[in-house]
Write a structure and sequence with these properties.
By secondary structure, this protein is an all-alpha fold. It has 13 helices and no strands.
Length: 335
């Protein structure tokens, strides 16, 4: 018997509605992903840098075929895990801050109505679930513990009753800890290796992981308050106590300069304590110098909100440059 196909108007309308709903949902998810992928990539690259910033994770690649497979797997799953969770964290913040973003004139998908709040909630749920799963695949239970820590920070950062983002210093500390957890996620995946490299240079992997994590955390304390400098008016109206509001915009930028300088100093101290090679502290010092120059230029144009925001966007290359410096320093650990 021939199959009967329903070509009735009502059937066609329902089918078109379903297709339209699927299309709109897909577009909304891609729009959210595209808008927040920039910072998600920074955290993902931090995780990738963590895999290669310990010397044994580099040199042992030429000796152990089984470890090569593990590193390749980790280099895919762990950065994807941190990327998903961080993107979800930023979208959750956009969701809670949609009204404030609209008042501050920010062209974000949720604030402008391009994406509904329901679509945003689905996005946040999916990205966090996938992120935890990827971390489990790449780093077993340690990956789950760290990923759950990232998810918890994301929730506490935006949740109205806790709202870490509204608390003085704690806001920046939460972001810094998230960055530090991302690079630790990568670094801990190679802790099981022997702590002596193939060039017989002993070092403490835990201490070195703390050092590299603190460098990325320091950079967050430079760039995150810097972003708030442009939002002082809107944040004041919302009752927030960001660093620029409490200590002033000029002092915020000056503190960022001091932190950048201290990062260079700490790097040379670590060099003298652990004989990590002079390349790593030299490169970190170079990044610190570039950061100081960028901050100093901003001091003279603090009243120009658009200029400050443009300068903040330049912080993305600084994060990536710092991560690259740590990896290159590990590659040339023996110098």
């Amino acid at each position: 018997m021939a199959q009967v196909v329903d070509y009735s108007p009502s059937h066609i309308i329902i089918k078109n509605d379903v297709l339209r709903s699927v299309r709109d949902f897909t577009v909304s998810q891609l729009l959210l992903l595209n808008y927040r992928k920039r910072w998600g990539m920074i955290y993902a690259f931090a995780t990738l840098a963590g895999i290669f910033c310990l010397p044994n994770a580099v040199f042992d690649l030429t000796q152990n075929a089984g470890y090569i497979v593990s590193v390749v797997l980790n280099s895919v799953t762990l950065p994807l895990g941190s990327f998903m969770i961080i993107v979800g964290m930023y979208v959750l913040n956009d969701l809670v801050d949609s009204n404030l973003d609209r008042a501050n004139g920010k062209d974000r998908p949720i604030a402008t109505g391009k994406v509904s709040k329901t679509q945003a909630w689905v996005f946040v749920t999916m990205t966090n679930t996938l992120g935890i799963l990827f971390c489990l695949i790449g780093n077993d239970m340690m990956g789950v513990v760290i990923s759950l820590g990232l998810v918890s920070i994301g929730i506490m950062y935006s949740a109205p009753k806790i709202s870490l983002k509204d608390r003085f210093v704690v806001k920046t500390l939460a972001i810094a800890v998230a960055m530090m957890l991302c690079i630790t996620l990568g670094a801990t995946s190679s802790w099981s290796l022997n702590v002596t490299t193939s060039l017989n240079i002993p070092y403490n992997p835990i201490f070195l992981t703390i050092y590299i994590a603190s460098m990325l955390g320091g950079m967050v304390f430079i760039t995150s308050p810097f972003n708030d400098v442009a939002d002082v008016q809107g944040d004041k109206a919302a009752g927030r106590k960001t660093i620029p509001i409490v200590i002033g915009r000029e002092n915020t930028v000056k503190v960022a300069i001091y932190i950048a300088a201290s990062m260079a100093g700490v790097s040379w101290i670590v060099f003298t304590m652990m004989h990590t090679g002079w390349i790593m502290p030299l490169l970190v010092s170079a990044v610190s110098g570039i950061t100081i120059i960028n901050m100093y230029r901003t001091l003279r144009r603090l009243d120009d909100r658009n200029y400050v925001r443009k300068q903040h966007k330049k912080s993305m290359p600084l994060h990536l440059l710092l991560q690259l410096s740590l990896v290159v320093g590990a590659l040339l650990f023996w110098l």
